[in-house]
């Protein structure tokens, strides 16, 4: 309970300071005539600037780097009829809408400018357990699910950071520290989705037997494309008694290079029961390689030999967690992702299918700016049991998801962070091991983004999108929606 309250406080504590205070001057908080019409019809569930405390909370998002304006109001549906009403009013008045579940979009797409409004699913966060399944409403976050599932003999494959929302995360595919050993991506564990169609007229189910095209698409299409996701039913996996986490650190660039190389050579021999994330923590830790090994008491013996075969570094005593919520809370903290104040950030990355020695050298000796960090999230294992076209998520052969994460407080820092991220991204891309970018790490600067996010699945996604939420019709649209011809400069 304490943990749950703790991360809720952290989530609610997002503040936009420094740099944001400066851009606040160019924000306008007034609706257009059409938005005012929409507000008139949704007054009973809307929060406006007339309620300053509630409004401040309502418009907050994890990455405020792109929110130069705020919407004139945020609607808080309490049920599916309210969601339908929001979408119908938006369509009738011709006002753009954005949907917000956890608000963690790296590109800030769960907000709109002053001409639109936000549908926040915060009041729709119920989590219901039934046997080996859990049904979570889109407005819940992973911590809500872990908190409920922790009481059972099961575990849910979900996000590493408890305050990330179910809605956006699951639609992008969703990888987890449990993905390799417990059945793949979070979307691979989805048995059914419930969605309000983009025109607000229908509530539909998507499953293996109903609306199969939508079921395929919702497993990796990314948020904001097809309609408003109401809930998802996930299959749970039997849980171990303990989750074990140990950390290996290297003190020098030479050792980091050998550490990277030892991982690179073992990619195909790691047991799937080992999840081995890598990082150069930059702004909050050492600027050398850290490996985080996560496994369970059931698989300890199997995993140990693999860890012993890695280039030796300083190894911290393993920590044991019976609660998955407690484990993910601690893991997030040690990865610097739970800030009391969330600042503007830029994130850029790509999936990779190998780690060649040239890249090992590049990363080991990289000059990392003070505000950046590099992360390599372990893929492979059970994620590869599906083909690239089995669901909308195409990068089934990825061994790691690589990304840079940089925060900034002024324009100069922003440029430095973006320059560094782009240069690291280009280097990885040119090394021949890049597959494409992860749609859940939505990137406004990514060129040819449709093919980069969806690869071989893009043409099919465009077709299905035209059926469920055609371009140019209705109100649920954004810059980088499937099929859009928008490209960054
Ligand atoms: C700290 C942090 C940790 C992360 N860890 C992981 C991780 O472990 N694994 C991983 O795979 N990803 C991770 N991510 C990326 C994360 O999956 C994406 O940012 C995801 O989009 C967040 O979902 P959300 O509901 O919180 O975000 P939101 O900003 O609310 O939504 C993201 C997008 O989906 C749309 N959307 C939201 N709700 C709905 C809905 N109900 N119906 C339709 N569209 C909707 C929004 O409009 C927006 O375009 C992490 C991100 C952060 C910031």
UniProtKB/TrEMBL annotation:
PROSITE patterns listed in its UniProt record? FAD_PCMH, OX2_COVAL_FAD
Annotated source species: Porites evermanni
Q: Which InterPro entries match?
A: BBE, FAD-bd_PCMH, FAD-bd_PCMH-like_sf, FAD-bd_PCMH_sub2, FAD-linked_Oxidoreductase, Oxid_FAD_bind_N, Oxy_OxRdtase_FAD_BS
Task: Cite the entry's keywords alphabetically.
Answer: FAD, Flavoprotein, Oxidoreductase
Is the keyword Flavoprotein assigned to this protein?
Answer: yes
**Coiled-coil regions listed in the entry:** none
Cofactor(s) required, per the database record: FAD
Check the record and name the Pfam families matching this protein: BBE (PF08031), FAD_binding_4 (PF01565)
Record family assignment: Belongs to the oxygen-dependent FAD-linked oxidoreductase family.
Q: What is this protein called?
A: FAD-binding PCMH-type domain-containing protein
Q: Which residues belong to any copy of the FAD-binding PCMH-type domain?
A: 67-239
């Amino acid at each position: 309970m304490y943990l749950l309250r703790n991360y809720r406080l952290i989530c609610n504590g997002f503040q936009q300071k420094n740099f944001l205070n400066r851009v606040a001057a160019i924000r306008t908080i007034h609706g257009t005539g059409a938005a005012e019409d929409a507000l008139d019809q949704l007054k009973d569930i809307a929060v406006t600037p007339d309620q300053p405390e509630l409004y401040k909370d309502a418009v907050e998002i994890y990455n405020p780097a792109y929110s130069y304006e705020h919407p004139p109001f945020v609607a808080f549906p309490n049920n599916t009829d309210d969601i339908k009403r929001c979408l119908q009013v938006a369509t009738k008045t011709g006002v753009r809408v954005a949907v917000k579940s956890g608000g963690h979009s790296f590109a800030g797409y769960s907000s709109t400018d002053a001409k639109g409004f936000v549908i926040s699913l915060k009041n729709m966060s119920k989590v219901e357990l039934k046997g080996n399944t859990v049904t979570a409403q889109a407005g819940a976050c992973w911590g809500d699910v872990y908190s409920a599932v922790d009481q059972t003999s099961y575990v849910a494959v979900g996000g590493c950071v408890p305050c990330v929302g179910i809605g956006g995360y699951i639609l992008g595919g969703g990888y987890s520290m449990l993905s390799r050993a417990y059945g793949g991506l979070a979307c691979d564990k989805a048995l059914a989705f419930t969605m309000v169609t983009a025109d607000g007229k229908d509530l539909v189910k998507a499953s293996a037997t109903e609306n199969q095209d939508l079921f395929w698409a919702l497993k990796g299409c990314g948020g904001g494309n097809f309609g408003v996701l109401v809930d998802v039913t996930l299959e749970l996996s039997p849980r171990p008694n303990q989750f074990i986490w140990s950390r290996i650190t290297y003190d020098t660039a030479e050792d980091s290079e050998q550490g990277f190389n030892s991982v690179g050579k073992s990619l195909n021999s790691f047991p799937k029961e080992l999840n081995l994330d890598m990082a150069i923590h930059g702004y909050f830790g050492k600027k050398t390689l850290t490996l985080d090994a996560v496994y369970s008491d059931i698989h300890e013996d199997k995993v140990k030999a693999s860890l012993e075969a890695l280039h030796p570094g300083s190894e911290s005593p393993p920590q044991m967690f019976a609660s998955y919520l407690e484990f993910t809370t601690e893991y997030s903290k040690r990865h610097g992702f739970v800030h009391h104040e969330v600042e503007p950030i830029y994130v850029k990355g790509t999936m990779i299918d190998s780690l060649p020695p040239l890249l090992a050298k590049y990363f080991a000796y990289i000059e990392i700016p003070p505000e950046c960090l590099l992360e390599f999230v372990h893929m492979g294992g059970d994620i590869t049991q599906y083909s690239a076209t089995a669901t909308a998520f195409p990068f089934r052969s990825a061994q790691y998801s690589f990304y840079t994460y940089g925060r900034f407080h002024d324009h100069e820092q922003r440029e430095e962070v973006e320059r560094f991220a782009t240069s690291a991204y280009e280097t990885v891309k040119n090394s021949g091991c890049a597959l494409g970018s992860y749609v859940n790490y939505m990137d406004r600067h990514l060129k040819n983004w449709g093919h980069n996010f969806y690869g071989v699945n893009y043409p099919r996604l465009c077709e299905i999108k035209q059926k469920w939420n055609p371009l140019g019709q209705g109100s649920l649209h954004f810059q980088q929606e499937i099929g859009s011809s928008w490209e960054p400069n």
